């Protein structure tokens, strides 16, 4: 899975690929999609009216032509100009209404897709972090873009066609029956052949179009991951291997796409062949019936046109079937995300008088069942105390923070805030109490001021500057082109890692939280800057409960208590001096770092 940029803390399963999803229930997808048309009732009603009038004009034109031919055959030339005027008027009206039908269909499709994308975006924001960690971000982006675009295309191009098709079938059937029942029956025989051919080919197409959408989502996920990790790819000279993997996946998509498009493109020629066969039948039997005196020559000409009009909606729908199948597959992929259970938001607000006392009571947690990450973890952190979590990679330090933030829910035990179970509080209210500074800084492609004020919407310029000064970020901000109004390109890619870290620290300063979490917050700055930041962080941490995740043990010597973790358990705890004297796991870690070896 692609690396997640926006989430502050993530679990160990972010590289797990989501299971392949298939759009199997077309009827359910259609009914679900129809719900989005309710908000566009007036556009749907207007489109229906335009289609109905255009169909009436299209159906009446051959009738006028039939009357004109019969008038010429009967040498009644006085009627011909009037009849032709009506016929040309019907054709002109039909053409004008088709133009407006296209414009209205486009507006309708974009409006519906806007609502669909809004729902999907809000849903993604409300999904639990566990879901986002387990699903490729590129695949989620594909649902937001490619799948939604496919739905929009079908709505704009085929919705009016389907309305018109139904009305054309009804209208032409009524007119043909009024002319000749036997000729109508012959036309229906060819229509049955069209339907059977469409059904057979559609069954072959469905599987390949679903598979193509799934492969497209996987390919997008890979591209997003590789673009994010481009420095790592280049650092290890893996360009050739990455390209080979991309080509392999692209080849699979190409082969599946060729199969799907080949079958889809065959529908048009097959339908045209059946339509031409219908034309021959109508012409031969029409001539025979005319010789018998059962119908007129004008009726034959009308039937040749109606036979085309009768099969045209089926032909058009058949040619659009590939797009419709793709859109339904995409719709079901979108609805699969919308149907995911969102993060539970119920709970009461955290009191403003909260002190910040935290207690973990016999907490157990597993990312994957039967593989426990946190095992019977108990720890009490007094309000305003500074606690450091240390241990080898995978010992569970970051997971403890994930559980405190309710990014994940514990399997057993309790986490108390001032003696109250945090599960009784709304997650959003709980997180407002917490300020986080991560090792991997997350910035947005916006102004420096926006990035700093992200932790406190509506912050004044004075508050922003004060936070920057506290974090020692004001010096380099003053040298930016527009200072605080400088727009960061590519989420701050033009800044150094240390400068991005300073902005993240300033953002936490502005939040003024009751609980502060530092995940190796000074890892990307030089020693001199680190000293200045430590002074600033000391002032920031005053009278606040602080939880520090550290690998550089030299930065936590003044912590009130150091917690040494191993495999989700506390194996040692105490102050720095006491743990050094104890000659246990902490001293081993400290001496290893002091010797310059990797811990």
Automatic annotation (TrEMBL):
Sample GO molecular function, one term: ATP hydrolysis activity
Location of the ABC transporter domain: 358-592
Residue stretches spanning the membrane: 44-69, 81-100, 151-179, 185-202, 277-306
SMART domains found in the cross-reference section: AAA
Domain of life, source organism: Bacteria
Alphabetically ordered keywords of this record: ATP-binding, Cell membrane, Membrane, Nucleotide-binding, Transmembrane, Transmembrane helix, Transport
Membrane-related topology note: Multi-pass membrane protein
Gene Ontology cellular component annotations, sorted alphabetically: plasma membrane
Pfam families: ABC_membrane, ABC_tran
CDD domains per record: ABC_6TM_Tm288_like
Localization in the cell: Cell membrane
Location of the ABC transmembrane type-1 domain: 45-326
Protein name: ABC transporter, ATP-binding protein
Native organism taxonomy: Bacteria, Bacillati, Bacillota, Negativicutes, Selenomonadales
């Amino acid at each position: 899975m692609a690396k997640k940029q926006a989430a502050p803390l993530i679990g160990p399963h972010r590289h797990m690929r989501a299971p392949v999803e298939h759009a199997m229930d077309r009827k359910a997808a259609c009914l679900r999609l129809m719900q989005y048309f309710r908000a566009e009732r007036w556009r749907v009603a207007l489109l229906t009216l335009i289609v109905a009038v255009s169909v009436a004009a299209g159906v009446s034109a051959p009738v006028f032509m039939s009357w004109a031919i019969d008038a010429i055959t009967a040498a009644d030339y006085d009627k011909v100009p009037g009849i032709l005027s009506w016929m040309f008027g019907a054709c002109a009206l039909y053409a004008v209404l088709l133009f407006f039908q296209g414009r209205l269909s486009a507006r309708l499709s974009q409006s519906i897709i806007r609502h669909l994308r809004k729902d999907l975006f809000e849903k993604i924001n409300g999904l639990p972090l566990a879901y986002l960690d387990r699903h490729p971000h590129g695949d989620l982006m594909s649902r937001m873009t490619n799948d939604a675009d496919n739905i929009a295309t079908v709505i704009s191009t085929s919705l009016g066609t389907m309305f018109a098709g139904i009305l054309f079938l009804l209208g032409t059937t009524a007119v043909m029956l009024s002319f000749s029942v036997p000729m109508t029956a012959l036309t229906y025989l060819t229509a049955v052949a069209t339907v059977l051919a469409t059904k057979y080919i559609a069954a072959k197409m469905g599987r390949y179009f679903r598979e193509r959408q799934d492969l497209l989502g996987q390919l997008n996920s890979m591209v997003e991951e590789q673009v994010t990790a481009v420095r790592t790819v280049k650092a290890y000279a893996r360009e050739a291997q990455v390209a080979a993997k991309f080509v392999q996946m692209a080849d699979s998509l190409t082969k599946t796409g060729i199969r799907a498009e080949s079958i889809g493109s065959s529908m048009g020629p097959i339908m045209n062949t059946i339509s031409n066969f219908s034309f021959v039948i109508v012409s031969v039997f029409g001539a025979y019936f005319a010789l018998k005196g059962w119908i007129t020559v004008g009726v034959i000409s009308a039937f040749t046109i109606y036979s085309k009009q009768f099969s045209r909606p089926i032909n058009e729908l058949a040619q659009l079937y590939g797009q419709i199948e793709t859109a339904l597959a995409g719709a079901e992929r979108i609805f699969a995300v919308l149907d995911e259970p969102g993060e539970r938001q119920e709970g009461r607000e955290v009191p403003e008088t909260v002190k910040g006392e935290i207690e973990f009571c016999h907490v157990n947690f597993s990312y994957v069942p039967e593989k426990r990450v946190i095992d019977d973890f108990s720890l009490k952190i007094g309000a305003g105390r500074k606690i450091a979590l240390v241990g080898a990679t995978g010992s569970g330090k970051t997971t403890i923070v994930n559980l405190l933030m309710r990014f994940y829910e514990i399997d057993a035990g309790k986490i108390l805030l001032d003696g109250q179970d945090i599960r009784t509080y709304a997650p959003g209210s709980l997180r407002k109490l917490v300020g986080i500074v991560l090792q991997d800084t997350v910035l947005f492609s916006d102004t420096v001021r926006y990035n700093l004020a992200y932790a406190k919407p509506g912050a004044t310029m004075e508050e922003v500057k004060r936070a920057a000064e506290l974090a020692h970020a004001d010096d380099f901000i003053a040298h930016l082109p527009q200072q605080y109004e400088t727009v960061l390109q590519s989420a701050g890619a033009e800044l150094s890692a240390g400068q991005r870290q300073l902005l993240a620290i300033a953002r936490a300063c502005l939040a003024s939280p009751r609980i502060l979490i530092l995940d190796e917050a000074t890892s990307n700055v030089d020693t001199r800057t680190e000293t200045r930041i430590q002074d600033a962080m000391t002032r920031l941490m005053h009278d606040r409960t602080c939880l520090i995740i550290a690998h550089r043990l030299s930065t936590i010597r003044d912590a009130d208590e150091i917690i040494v973790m191993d495999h989700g358990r506390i194996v040692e705890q105490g102050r720095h001096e006491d743990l050094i004297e104890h000659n246990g796991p902490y001293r081993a870690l400290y001496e290893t770092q002091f010797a310059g070896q990797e811990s």
